[in-house]
Every structure is written in C-alpha cells, then in structure tokens.
Amino acid sequence: MHRAPTDLRRTPVTSDQGTEELAARAAAGDSAALDLLLGRIRPEVLRRCGRFLVHREDAEEAAQDVLFQVARKIGTFEGRSRFHTWLYTVVANCCRQKYRALKRRRGEQSLSVTDTDTPDPRRTSVIAGTRIDLLEALERLESVSPELVAPLVYRDICQMEYREIEEQLGVPMGTVKSRLHNARRQVRGWLVDPG
Which of 78, 112, 148, 191 has its Cβ near the most Cβ atoms within 10 Å? Predict the structure, then answer.
C-alpha cells in the first residue's frame, strides 16, 4: 500500500470515502479527513476496547485515549499496512496502558481504604475476572517473553488475520504462528494455575 499523494488534499473530503482513503488523507495533513475518520472509527474503537476492558467506563476512557492518539500520531501512518492494522496496535497499547493505570489505582486505593460497601464491578463479575486475569497474564508474559505478547494480542483479542499480523510485525508467517502457539501455551498455564 502506498501513501496518498499530497494533491488529494486539494479535492474535497466526502463522507462516502473509504476509511483507508480518509486515513491516507489525514496522514497527509487533511484535517477534514481526520475529523471524518475519527467519527467513523469511534464505534469500532469502543467495541475493541471493550474486548480488553469489560467495565464500560474503562473501555470508554481507553477509546478516548485511542482517538486522541490517532489524531496525534496519524502523521506516522505511512500506509505500508492497512489502516485498521495500525489502529489495532494503537487500541492494544492504549487498553494495556489503561489496565496498568487501573491496577496501580486499585493498589493505591486498597492501601487507603480498608472496607467498602460498594463492590468493584471489575472484580465481582465472572467475565471481568476472566479478562483481568488475561491482562495480568499478558503483563507477566511481557516480563518473561515480550516478543510473544503482540501475536497473542493481535490474533486473540484484536482478531486480526495472520497476514495482517505478519505485515505488522515484519516477521514470517511461521514465526507469527510459532510465537502465537508459545504465547497461548504459557498464558493458558497461568490462567489455570496463577501461582
């Protein structure tokens, strides 16, 4: 894929343009294209953030962070891969940062508050517990084998195609599949036996 020529900025932006074209135009500095792009991707970004963070408010905050990062860093999108591939990387990074912040905040709150009447929905829901456990396993995986994290996040959470992951990571398909297999094996063991 190639970057949109700069002369695209001279033609008006319309809402019927595809996401890839809007992204290319926004990367070339077209602010109207960026506005349309952000509006178009917002529902998908929120849905994808919800795969990481089950608590709706957390997912919404992460989605806002994603949209802010897209607006700030769209100039770094070079069009070598599909825009959505680039976007999923931003989503994964923002959600993991949000999770780390929540974890730190929870640690600070547990030191200052000894008893609370309101249960934390992040800890009481079975689904939330599973996702929190997965994010904790990803943190652990990153400390042991950082090269295994991206394939697992891209395939199992972002649901990217193998070809997209290969393009994004710049490694052969066999390496992607091998890393994914090893990541799943390690994480599965930690989810079953967290000790």
Answer: 148
